[in-house]
Amino acid sequence: MSKRRIGVLVMSYGTPESLDQVEAYYTHIRRGHPPTAEQLHELTSRYEAIVGGFFPLRENTNKQVQGLQETLNREHPELEFVCYQGLKHAQPYVEDGVEQMVKDGITEAIGVVLAPHYSVMSVGGYVKRAKDKAQELGLDIEFVLSYHMHPKLLEALSDRVERALTKFDGAERQDIRVIFTAHSLPEKILEMKDPYPDQLLATSKAIAERVAITNWQFGWQSAGQTAMPWLGPDILDVLQTLRKEEGVANVLLCPIGFVSDHLEVLYDIDIEAQALAQELGLHLERTESLNTDPLYMETLSDVVYQKWAEKANLS
């Protein structure tokens, strides 16, 4: 007897695969409006600065999708899970992933985003696109909306903080300021009572309790360059304040809003924030990204299976 097949649409932001794709990628982010020469140069320069233009996000995402499929099938051998990618700003787009499932004969599916915290402007956007396409094609699909307090996710992040705290030779543990960070979003989400900031704080508090640290705070990073105000304070401003006004000498950044090494980690933290820290005479470290950590793969596997089980019981 053949196994019941469940499609899993694994969604993420997407990235160009090479430097010559940056312009098309940026144009898609800008809703069809090509970037100015200056904007294009700035983004291309950031990619070039990361290990000479190597694009780690796409490879990391491929490995995460493969790792999730292997974990699901290992943990639930009575079923057959098939994972598909759906990217927000690069091919295969979210809609392409849904379409491929239908072509492959998938009739039931679960969608999950490679981002633990929900916002209507981030995860909500992925879900809407996937849902619209699925309805058009008649695919039965349900979605995992967030998993920011999953015990295995908290364990993986806490382990990283614990390990990174050992990088500050001679510094007393209580003298190291830990700053949890995530991608900023436009301030208007606050008026919408969006859960994003509260979910991020809940994850931060849970990690701090597990690692037994009290000297911590939250900061935002990688805000978009738009006319509307974005959530702050920005991490670069926070570093200035900590050094100049509070005399803090050791800072550990923990980018809990990002699950793999990509531009916001490898450039915005490792290059931009690190350059400012050196200028300020600040010892700055960051925690390792989750990437394909088995605990993260198991987190995703758990929430996908749980969502499928809920759905199966309803039908």
UniProtKB/TrEMBL annotation:
This is Coproporphyrin III ferrochelatase. Keywords: Cytoplasm, Heme biosynthesis, Iron, Lyase, Metal-binding, Porphyrin biosynthesis. CDD domains: Ferrochelatase_C (cd00419). It holds the Pfam family Ferrochelatase. Fe(2+) binds at H183, E264. Fe-coproporphyrin III binds at Y13, R30, R46, Y47, Y126. Belongs to the ferrochelatase family. Involved in coproporphyrin-dependent heme b biosynthesis. Catalyzes the insertion of ferrous iron into coproporphyrin III to form Fe-coproporphyrin III. It catalyses: Fe-coproporphyrin III + 2 H(+) = coproporphyrin III + Fe(2+). Pathway: Porphyrin-containing compound metabolism; protoheme biosynthesis. It is found in: Cytoplasm.
